[in-house]
Amino acid sequence: MKICAITKKGSIVGGGYSNRTRATKFNPTGKKRKYLNLQRKKVFIPELNKSINIEASVQGFRTMKKRGAYATLLKAGLIKA
């Protein structure tokens, strides 16, 4: 299952209706699964003086950039203090 390591979010199911379908009530497209934008990156943590590989969403990497790598990964439980 594809889950972000930092934010712990997964995929969602959303409706796949176009505006034309809504207007005519013809040929509904049904539901569609929407996946996260998961990326794999090697992140260096200066506090531990080592690098780790992480598979996280882009939103998770933005959170890590804002709050700092060490604090974010510590809160997510990916590293130990």
From TrEMBL:
<dbReference type="InterPro" id="IPR026569">
    <property type="entry name" value="Ribosomal_bL28"/>
</dbReference>
<keyword id="KW-0687">Ribonucleoprotein</keyword>
<dbReference type="GO" id="GO:1990904">
    <property type="term" value="C:ribonucleoprotein complex"/>
</dbReference>
<dbReference type="InterPro" id="IPR037147">
    <property type="entry name" value="Ribosomal_bL28_sf"/>
</dbReference>
<protein>
    <recommendedName>
        <fullName>50S ribosomal protein L28</fullName>
    </recommendedName>
</protein>
<dbReference type="GO" id="GO:0005840">
    <property type="term" value="C:ribosome"/>
</dbReference>
<dbReference type="InterPro" id="IPR034704">
    <property type="entry name" value="Ribosomal_bL28/bL31-like_sf"/>
</dbReference>
<dbReference type="GO" id="GO:0003735">
    <property type="term" value="F:structural constituent of ribosome"/>
</dbReference>
<keyword id="KW-0689">Ribosomal protein</keyword>
<dbReference type="Pfam" id="PF00830">
    <property type="entry name" value="Ribosomal_L28"/>
</dbReference>
<comment type="similarity">
    <text>Belongs to the bacterial ribosomal protein bL28 family.</text>
</comment>
